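User:
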Amino acid sequence: MLSPITMSEERLLYLEQRVTTQMDRFEGLLQRMECISKTMQVGQCEFLTTANSEVNFFDFMCRVIDELKRSCRMGTAESYQSAMASFKQFIGLPDIAIDHIDDVMIKQYEQYLFRRGVAKNTSSFYMRILRAVYNRAIEKKLITSSNPFKHVYTGVERTVKRAINLETIKRIKQLDLSDNYLCELARDMFLLSFYLRGMSYVDMVHLKKTNLSKGYLSYRRRKTGQEMHIKWEKPMQELVKKYKHQCCRGYLLPLMRQPNPSRSRYKYGLTRINRQLHYVAQMVGMTSPLTLYVARHSWASIAKQKQIPLSVISEGMGHDNETTTRIYLKTLDKSVVDNANNQILKELC
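Assistant: Predicted structure:
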């Protein structure tokens, strides 16, 4: 019985394929040089090579990451760094020429991820990032158009349901946490995120008192840059009033003790909130994890149960890539979204 191919043998097979590919490439180059040299005088012949063959992928990706950082897209930059670290570990080299990346290599990278126990959605996430960088190189004419990602999965599979129902949110709201400030703060920020159509933590952190005017909370999503307007409801005001003396000067919520928090401070604050929400979940008998992001999933899920149109939900959450919901209209009267939010909040009163 034949023994299974080990990882080292599989790697050697891959390298053999790469060598064969490169030999074919150089043979074609030599043939082209011979044809050209026959029509050139002695002394005019120069060494020929394919354009931009020395452009390295990781070097180029680092430049893309730097651009993201300069645009203050720190979260996206971190995702790109994670994908690059994973791919670099697979390659086993400091860098690789962009035009050496082909469908065989990318397929083997996917198999490498699966062998290491990486989830399908995580693998797809890395692939989409690498593809975006590769396509950026094509746009800059560093390489000719190609699709080395055509044989790997780049979709998104449904994950474990994160949403909770209104009854559970009611139980969370009714908890007496007055003897535990951190736990009470986490619970209240969870509720406020839900009230605000699942507002993300990073947007909540940066809310200022000036964002609240004439009965509306107006802000721009940090992730997409989309401008949002939310009608200010009584439950929102009650929570903000509760913490008004604990906020950093000019800020609406007590999430940061200093203005303009760094990325590391922001991440620490989110971790602290989610750690406390873990205890909140235990208090109401939840078996699934409770995080601030659950508020966003829950708002969308409950809105759907209320038969609120998908287009309204998409607009309410500030999605910028829900193409199927935006075929019918380009903009949506914000009063429709406000009414949808009002219907949901009434269920908690």
